[in-house]
Design brief:
alpha/beta, five-stranded parallel sheet, 9 helices, globular, binds flavin-adenine dinucleotide, binds NADP nicotinamide-adenine-dinucleotide phosphate
Length: 446
């Protein structure tokens, strides 16, 4: 029987486990699976931790999520086709759940089928090489500090790519009297109540961390973009200016001449695709983009078709795209999908990469990733889900954000799986200070 190693038990690793489980339920003979997870529990980034820096074993903390994080896209766009929100919560729930609610949903799906038994927790993969037609995977049992090695026929890298922060330096940082941190270490916006906060970056972390700080009482929030401003209509107390030039003592001086007192600088400057646990010839090298090169169908390593990477794209689509990738990878491993010649693989990758390089705006990017996900969906028996509705939802969501960045999370969308329409949440997002699952689910909805 062939052996499959899955590296990481976050949403992508769990999609992979679930895909094999669904095949097994249909009576198919599946390979032996071992999933390695360096944390003590599953869920990846959604498995919140108060920790920053390293854990009790000296291993860097992968978590980048924070208290008060709510879904930043409609939950309907990420819904699992084989496990709807209605099935999990037994009633329709609003479209933008807080982190704890989404975590519950992710974990609910994998609670069936003894999948946890396939995962080695507290186990960090430290090296992967390919020799004699096998992958030799070395891993550390963190609790017992033991290094072990096993051979596998296939390796699936599902280690995520939002855990290792990219930390640039600006002039004056060494002598800045306040705090400098990356969004990776941001945990609780309450910490910045009454403070002058500078946020650097212009993507989702910059947007959300800045809004969180404003919501929880920062004195001022100034966002410094590098290339393009986000351009939303920011609420009172927030502004967006062009690029930090330097820090001069407590003052942040921007390229457009803005000078702003600062207590804290939060670098929302993104993350590195970082795979120290895999040999150079197998290592994906990319920045955060919608179609990283060298991955056939966004999944299969071009130079070794027994190696798969899941979820390595920049993401509009998340959980159900990860599922489509996992179902596809499963069927390739189980011999149900044949992959074409090297030439065709190369042409296909080049086609997608060159289309991606021409994208100019969010609507085109949404179309691109929807087409990619639909193509994968058509290749396996992943259950029916309405990707056209998801495409429409994403575009509507983008326009809601432009209309009002404070209210987009109060909107309602319909399910691409069950068709049910989400109720409006009982409290508008900017007034909802308690984001516990209990409060979110138990109070009556409008
Ligand atoms: C701040 C933040 C907010 C987000 N919010 C949303 C949101 O609202 N909605 C949404 O859809 N998406 C959101 N995302 C996107 C997120 O990427 C996905 O939701 C999802 O977590 C990706 O799953 P993953 O399995 O690829 O990676 P991860 O969730 O990162 O899981 C990877 C797992 O691999 C493990 N691992 C890593 N290296 C090793 C190793 N060497 N050995 C063993 N195990 C290893 C890690 O411990 C981790 O458990 C957010 C991301 C961030 C950073
Ligand atoms: N649920 C939520 O509310 C929530 C909250 C936060 C994050 N997320 C998710 O987290 C993931 C990661 O998002 P992210 O924003 O951290 O990363 P990202 O999308 O990769 O964006 C990185 C940002 O860093 C900027 N940057 C890089 N180097 C810089 C520098 N030297 N100076 C200034 N800016 C610099 C980039 O700007 P340029 O464009 O100029 O290169 C870009 O805006 C996304 O999937 C997102 O959806 C979700």
């Amino acid at each position: 029987m062939s052996r499959v190693a899955i590296i990481g038990a976050g949403p992508c690793g769990l999609s992979m486990l679930r895909s094999f489980y669904q095949a097994e339920k249909k009576g198919e003979k599946v390979p032996e699976i071992v999933c390695f997870e360096k944390q003590e529990d599953w869920g990846g980034l959604w498995n919140y931790s108060w920790r920053t820096g390293s854990d009790q074993y000296g291993d860097p903390i992968p978590n980048s999520m924070y208290r008060y994080l709510w879904s930043n896209g409609p939950k309907e766009c990420l819904e699992f086709a084989d496990y709807s929100f209605d099935e999990h919560f037994k009633k329709p729930i609003p479209s933008f759940p807080p982190r704890e609610v989404l975590y519950d949903y992710i974990i609910g799906r994998v609670s069936e089928g003894n999948l946890k038994d396939k995962i080695k927790f507290n186990t960090r993969v430290i090296n992967t090489i390919y020799k004699n037609d096998k992958f030799e995977v070395s891993y550390q049992d963190k609790a017992n500090n033991k290094i072990l090695t096993e051979n596998f026929d296939y390796v699936i890298v599902s280690s995520g790519h939002f855990s290792v922060p990219y930390i640039p330096e600006y002039k004056g940082m060494n002598s800045f009297p306040g705090r400098i941190m990356h969004s990776h270490d941001f945990r609780d916006a309450e910490e910045f109540r009454g403070k002058d906060v500078i946020v650097l970056g212009s993507s989702y972390s910059a947007e959300d961390v800045a809004l969180q700080c404003n919501k929880y009482g920062a004195k001022s929030v100034t966002i410094g973009y590098r290339h393009n401003p986000m351009g939303f209509k920011w609420p009172k107390g927030m502004k967006e200016v062009h690029y930090l030039d330097r820090l001069d003592g407590k003052k942040a001086i921007f390229k457009d001449g803005t000078k702003q007192d600062a207590d804290v600088i939060i670098l929302c400057t993104g993350y590195l695709h970082h795979f120290p646990f895999i040999n150079e010839d197998l290592k994906l090298k990319t920045h955060n983009r919608l179609y990283p090169p060298k991955l056939y169908k966004g999944v299969i390593w071009q130079d070794n078709h027994k190696l798969f990477y899941l979820g390595m794209q920049d993401q509009f689509h998340t959980f159900n795209m990860f599922d489509c990738q996992a179902w596809y990878a499963r069927d390739v491993i189980m011999g149900k999908i044949k992959i074409p010649s090297d030439k065709e693989i190369d042409e296909d990758i080049n086609k997608w990469v060159s289309m991606e390089e021409k994208l100019e705006n969010p609507d085109q990017m949404i179309d691109f990733q929807t087409e990619y996900t639909k193509e994968l969906h058509d290749m396996s028996d992943y259950p029916k889900i309405d990707f056209e509705l998801i495409r429409k939802h994403f575009k509507e969501w983008e326009h809601h954000k432009v209309e009002d960045i404070l209210t987009y999370r109060n909107k309602s969308f319909s399910s691409p799986v069950t068709g049910s329409v989400a109720p409006i949440h009982h409290t508008p997002w900017d007034k909802a200070m308690d984001d516990s699952m209990k409060t979110f689910l138990e109070q009556p909805t409008k």
